[in-house]
């Protein structure tokens, strides 16, 4: 349903976000905010899935916004990659979960909008991460999968499995107990040791002496993230960016990196970059009291940065303003306003696998119109709604590092005096608990299993990357370029290994 309508929705979004260049980087291709009329025509064609027409328009450009032209020409194959499945390929991917699935089922689900699809150059193409969306939102597909799982499940061994040694609910309860007993906001420290390996595949453009540059993610020094140490690197010539001062994203690299520059000796061999580092992260549990919250109390000039639009992802469209009016309903307390937005998104935004952010021209409107999105969509929509409601809000991201598994993750911070900047995770939302403190934990608090890499989105790497980034918004996997040209995600792999111990 929503994908049948997506082309028209996408066009509406595109025509409302074009704006003059702003001091803050857009966190996207410049094509999405370009005022060049030829670029705008190409973007309309691109957003409608008319990729060959967009390529033809761009191919005729020899003046104007040539940087945006080159970036949009890179986005087109990325979009084709994201929607690379045809119905027969999806059929094969679905058979392990639903063995009796047929091509008629696929056609029915496409027509019903149960599959994430785009029409590209007149052909229906399916999102490469399907059936992730189908098996979350289509009742018929879910029931058929569950029936097959029940039929093929091994005999029950209930009671024989040991209790899990770690659970999120127990961890949150421990944080609340320790913070309440000690009166401290930072509790339950965990020492992390991480080995991060980025492997660049042999590339057709590589030659003996080609220069390979790689940027790997590295922890910020932040209030609840300390003792950051690079233990070793390979090659040993790693350059570590300075952290942002006092956690302020305008006083240092807001997206912190370890940088390598390497001359290729054998282009037929993979090129490997590895770092091993440590840091200690504490849970953060300030005692929040609505009666103490005030809208002022910080550096007003500094905070104003986090109250304004930042095209293309933070734009106060009529739809955004209307949603804020419905949620806030005359409330003036900044903590209450932000909590209402947090609850509203928990009720209205459902998690789904998402496209690469570089392909989405406006993350907040993308989530608002679809009612679906991943953690980055949830964070950007929360930030946009908060700013439109007069609550300073900003981006933060990195990884979750929980014992049962790690993942890339995005969340937000809001500024409310007298506490200052406090974290809000709109993607985690309310937790399934009868305890209200646990249920609303991720509004204003965070656990011990986070790695903060980014204090803002779309910021320049250190040293600056010459080519158009694989991910111009976030920085969690890394970036690579060969002889000054970007290598996209399918040209390299990454691996992360964790060790965790209670902190000092």
Tell me briefly what this model is.
31% of the residues lie in helices and 22% in strands.
Mean pLDDT: 92
Considering DSSP H and I runs of 4 or more, what fraction of the residues is helical?
25-40%
Q: Strand fraction band?
A: 15-25%
**Radius of gyration over all CA atoms, rounded:** 23 Å
Stretches where pLDDT falls below 50 for ≥5 residues? 1-22
**End-to-end span in angstroms?**
52 Å
Secondary-structure-derived class? alpha+beta
Strand order, largest beta sheet = 6-7-4-15-16
Count all strands and give the number. Answer: 17
Main sheet record:
5 strands, antiparallel
Note the overall shape. Answer: globular
- Total helical elements: 15
What does this structure look like?
The protein has 504 residues and is α+β, with helices and mostly antiparallel strands. Helix content is 31%, strand content 22%. It is built from 15 helices and 17 strands. It has helices spanning 6-17, 37-47, 51-59, 66-82, 87-94, 103-112, 134-137, 139-152, 168-182, 300-303, 318-328, 334-348, 363-370, 375-388, 436-439, and strands at residues 117-120, 123-126, 186-200, 211-217, 225-234, 239-240, 257-263, 271-284, 350-351, 372-373, 393-400, 407-416, 420-424, 450-454, 479-482, 485-487, 492-502. The strands form five sheets. The chain has a five-stranded antiparallel β-sheet with strand order 6-7-4-15-16, with no helix packed on it. It has a four-stranded antiparallel β-sheet with strand order 5-8-3-17. The longest helix has 17 residues, at 66-82. The radius of gyration is 23 Å and the shape is globular.
